[in-house]
Amino acid sequence: MNATAARPKIAQRLSRAELRQRWRQLADNPVVAAIPCKVELNEKGAIEVSPPTVRHGVIQAFLARELARQRPEGTTITECPIETDIGMRVPDVVWVSPELMERHRNENEFRVAPDLCVEVLSPTNTHIEMAEKTAAYLAAGAKEVWVVGEDGVPEIYSSAGRVSASTLGFELPRPPDAFSGPV
Questions:
Q1: Contact yes or no for 89/119 (Cβ under 8 A)
Q2: CA-CA distances (angstroms) from residue 10 to 13, 21, 44, 89, 111?
Q3: What does CATH list as the number for 52-179?
């Protein structure tokens, strides 16, 4: 047996077209649809899942309501697939301007990131993972990325790095007391 045959095959990064095709196969698969977790694909096409918690859902719902209330002219979407350099990623909440929504309304996944992408931290998330997702959403066209911690308050990032306030005109009130306890 030669040495090359004995080496394990290393998964290669998928092209954007291959990633999109793999995503659509998963989206049409009833077995995958039955998974009660957020499903994402990494850049190699491997499935990644994030089991939800009640607290995570409460924060996600609160943020979706607040974004829709404060900027009703746009579209607020939960768990919206976005094609990025690190795979098909699914932020917990996004806000899409009317102009961007008009251009991409017939797509199954966004090929450019919505104006705002929000990730609510789960116990299994790492700082490295969130930094990668933040960079990927910004590189894909997001104007802002929010990483929301256990207290329900976002860390806001733009192409300039971490910023102290939203440049998109959002002001989040302090989350209700229901946010106490683990995510």
A1: no
A2: 10, 20, 10, 22, 26
A3: 3.90.1570.10
Residues 6+ apart with CB under 8 A from 135: none
pLDDT tens figures, 99-143: 999 998 888 899 999 999 999 998 888 889 999 999 999 999 999
CA triple 172-178-183, angle to 5 deg = 90
> Counting every residue, how long is the chain?
183
Contact status, residue 84 vs residue 139, Cβ threshold 8 Å: yes
User: Is 80:94 a contact under the CB 8 Å cutoff?
Assistant: yes
The rounded distance, in Å, linking the Cα atoms of 21 and 15 is 10
First to last CA, the chain: 51
- pTM for this prediction: 0.85
